[in-house]
Specification:
The complex is a heterodimer. Chain A has 3 helices and 5 strands. By secondary structure, chain A is of the alpha+beta class. Chain A has a domain of 82 residues: Thiol Ester Dehydrase, Chain A (Roll), CATH 3.10.129. Chain A has a 5-stranded antiparallel beta sheet with strand order 1-3-4-5-2, covered by helices on one side. Chain A is elongated. By secondary structure, chain B is α+β, with helices and mostly antiparallel strands. Chain B has 4 helices and 5 strands, in the order E-H-H-H-H-E-E-E-E. Chain B has a 5-stranded antiparallel beta sheet with strand order 1-3-4-5-2, covered by helices on one side. Chain B is elongated, with a radius of gyration of 17 Å. The chains are: A alpha+beta, B alpha+beta. Chains A and B meet through helix 1, helix 3 and strand 2 of A and helix 1, helix 3 and strand 2 of B. Strand 2 of chain A pairs antiparallel with strand 2 of chain B, so a sheet runs across the interface.
């Protein structure tokens, strides 16, 4: 018996530290000082350095891979709605919105920080579970 | 509004190796602790032929090839005036540590909204391994134009 894909999934990440932002800058090649330098962030109207949108999207990736494994992911798509800042916890949620003929499940994704601010909205498609699928 | 002559601009392909150290750093940055991304035997035990990469890792390969900042420089747009509006990935085949990935990026489209206050730029990336497409991705950037 193969367990069906769950209706709802959730993952909490962070709090995002200055070290996380520096590591992400180095790993991703995005060295925009808005993410690293408090003065630059303040000049742009943010109280603290801004979390890379792509780091929040990477957390969306973890939401999916932690439940289904990386090999099951067919697509991942997000719109960036708001910026998280250093120190935020980020909560990602996925809700099933459909299943196609091949059993590929579509999840609607939403991400918020701990103050309830919307950060991302999007969707992902995940393959049907199989016995031999890679985790 | 960008010069419409830039639409269709495509980068020269370059080939970038998926470096184990880079994948490890990326995992550390995103809080990904699963050993399959760094330990080949853990990856094999989980059914992978080699260590896989996290779903958004190809952005790092893309930045090595030609970052959005470099494309904005060609367009004469200051980086400080842009925001990342959307990002998507379509996965066709798994990518593993040690793979050599050929990357190209194309400026597919650009359009204005709010009477020209905002310009959207659509960048498509294609990732291939030995001629096979492994992933297509799309980045949409929004430029906040200065008021006339």
């Amino acid at each position: 018996m193969i367990a069906p894909r769950p209706q709802r999934i959730e993952l909490e990440c962070g709090p995002v530290s200055a070290l996380d932002l520096a590591l992400y800058a180095a790993a991703s090649g995005d060295h925009n000082p808005l993410h690293l330098d408090a003065d630059v962030a303040r000049a742009a109207g943010f109280e603290r350095p801004v979390v890379h949108g792509m780091l929040t999207m990477a957390f969306c990736g973890r939401l999916l891979t932690s439940h289904f494994g990386v090999a099951a992911l067919r697509s991942l798509s997000v719109r960036f709605l708001g910026a998280a800042t250093r120190g935020d916890r980020i909560v990602l949620r996925g809700t099933v919105t459909g299943v196609d003929k091949e059993g590929v499940v579509t999840y609607e994704l939403a991400g918020h920080n701990d103050a309830g601010k919307e950060l991302v909205a999007g969707s992902a498609r995940v393959s049907a579970p199989t016995h031999k699928a890679a985790r | 509004m960008i010069d419409s002559g830039h639409i269709g601009f495509t980068t020269q392909p370059s080939t970038i190796a998926v470096d184990p150290w880079r994948v490890q750093l990326f995992c550390q940055a995103i809080g990904e602790a699963d050993p399959i991304y760094r330990d080949e035997s853990a990856a094999r035990d989980a059914g992978h032929p080699a260590c896989p990469v996290p779903p958004t890792f190809l952005r790092a390969i893309e930045a090595d090839h030609c970052s959005a900042a470099e494309i904005l420089k060609i367009l004469g747009i200051p980086v400080a005036s842009v925001l990342h509006a959307e990002q998507s990935f379509e996965y066709h085949a798994p990518v593993h540590v040690g793979d050599r990935i050929e990357v190209t990026r194309t400026l597919t489209d650009s359009y204005d909204k709010r009477d020209g206050a905002l310009t959207f730029i659509v960048l498509d990336s294609h990732f291939r391994r030995e001629g096979e497409t492994v992933c297509d991705s799309r980045q949409i950037i929004v430029v906040r134009n200065p008021k006339e």
